[in-house]
Amino acid sequence: MNRILVVEDEPTIAIALQDDLEDEGYRVEAISDGLTAIEKARAGGWDLILLDVMLPGKDGFSVLREMRKDDHRTPVILLTARGHEQDRITGLSLGADDYVTKPFSRQELLLRVQAVLRRAGPTWSAVHSFGDIQVDCERGEVRRGAAVLDVTALEFRLLLMFLENRGKVLSIERIGQMIWGADTFQSDRVVYTHVNNVRAKIEPVPSQPRYIVSLRGLGYRFDG
């Protein structure tokens, strides 16, 4: 049974979310401020966190930033009334797995929860290597030699996606569908940002990529 932490300071929304998720069989705890959210996230044991952006104590962006800085890879769906593209880019760049703008329908949110939990599930039970990089799927780690690289959960999934599709051309649209889900639109800029973040961590010379190769007008191909 998946455990979900709901961080929402509007009581009516928090209660509705908890009821809807529990009706679907999830174990749910609801809290209402950013400082408590950080404590709960650090304690671990969550399969997913639904995180409102506008919170007392610390806003959702700050909570997410601290989580990823501490290498907590629990999937996060941001909930917000702020629908500006820059807010979406900020949240996703910080390592959010999805971004839902209020008001949203019960069915839409449940589908997004299911999609994120499905994508966060284990893909392989092996260690895969290229160059001096090892990707340990069971431990959820990327290593260069004995050193563990600091990658977010989203970056880890993005690297797995490339490894699963070695030698194949992947369009920006296709990458967005595989990482965020077929029903979620991500701008090209968001995809570029995350690909460049992965390159910065795995490429010998990030400005001259050897593994994640750009193909003008087509997308990317993983050569490794």
Structure, described:
The N and C termini lie far apart (37 Å). The chain has 2 domains: 3-120, Response regulator (Rossmann fold, 3-Layer(aba) Sandwich); 127-222, Winged helix-like DNA-binding domain superfamily/Winged helix DNA-binding domain (Arc Repressor Mutant, subunit A, Orthogonal Bundle). It has a 5-stranded parallel β-sheet, sandwiched between helices. α2 (34-43) runs parallel beside α3 and α6 (153-164) packs across α8. It is an alpha/beta fold and 224 residues long. It has helices at residues 11-23, 34-43, 60-69, 85-93, 106-120, 153-164, 172-180, 188-202, and strands spanning 3-7, 27-31, 48-52, 76-80, 98-101, 127-130, 133-136, 141-144, 147-148, 169-170, 212-215, 219-222.
In short:
By secondary structure, the chain is α/β, with parallel strands linked by helices.
By DSSP (H or I, 4+ residues per run), the number of helices equals: 8
Q: Class by helix and strand content?
A: alpha/beta
Kindly give the count of domains.
Answer: 2
- Return the average pLDDT rounded to an integer: 88
CATH topology of the largest domain: Rossmann fold
Into which percent range does the helicity of residues fall? 40-55%
> What integer value in Å does the Rg equal?
18 Å
Can you identify the CATH superfamily of the largest domain? Response regulator
Largest sheet data: 5 strands, parallel
